[in-house]
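Quick bug: MET27 protein output formatted oddly.
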Amino acid sequence: GTGMGLLAAVRDRVAAVHRGSALPERLRLYDGWAARYEQDVAALEYRAPHLAAASLAFAFPAPRAEARLLDVACGTGLVARELHRRGFRCLHGVDGSAGMLERARSTGLYQELRLCVLGTEPLPTPAEHYDAVTVVGALGEGQVPSTVLPELLRVTKPGGFLCLTTRSNPSNLRYKAELEAALGQLERSGAWQKLLAQEVEYWERATTEEEESTRGTGYISGVVYIYQKCPVPHLEEG
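Here's what came back:
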């Protein structure tokens, strides 16, 4: 059926950007993918933006409208749409692809959008600037390195939240182990505390045979992590 044809085409586009080509080439592929990106991830039933925004909203204290959020590797704005639905209004985004940022700009959901290639340059943001920082879908093999965590922490206010996701499919397990080691190290050093690490079985449809979930469901699993930067402000006694 047409469904399988579409998935095969999507599979090729996903494989191209994940193939571990050199960074400039990969960003060029993202630029070219921008126009079809939302259609493709819909075909994959990609649930990470929804799951991440729901988790962050659950952890986040009210009110949300004034809170300043940074959407890192914002892509076309899928995460912004989900955050906006949950009452977050002050959204800034950064991405390494100008083509993706153009799409994000057209949503009208961001107050500010900046080009930034995470992992090779610092975030274009002062320290302790954001109430929350999200990195949804970009922490993975051949994408954003786990060495960016201190930079994410730098721009987060004390007591602010970080919402991160990664995939649990076989080809990303080495990266996931590295990421979790880095997350744990920062927790032990007192930089942040873990509020949530939620494994989600139906994260998105698998696009390759070796990515197939162990249970043969045709889906790969993923994780949402929520951390809170220390020191966490104490609630006033009242």
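Actually, after a second look the formatting is fine. The first helix runs from residue 2 to 18. Closing.
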